[in-house]
Amino acid sequence: xxxxxxxxSVDVLMExxxxxxxxxxxxxxxxxxxWSNCTNDKTINKNGxxxxxx
Length: 54
Known about the structure:
By secondary structure, this protein is an all-alpha fold. The protein is built from 1 helix and no strands.
């Protein structure tokens, strides 16, 4: 019974870790695109060109 309980909790833990890593991955990608958008804005605005994000 104890081993089954431990096995189940390990499964749940692995699932949580998987979800968490996916969340972190998505978050980092979003941050990356946000950062590149900001830097692009600065570069384009410095040239005095209108910037439209597509």
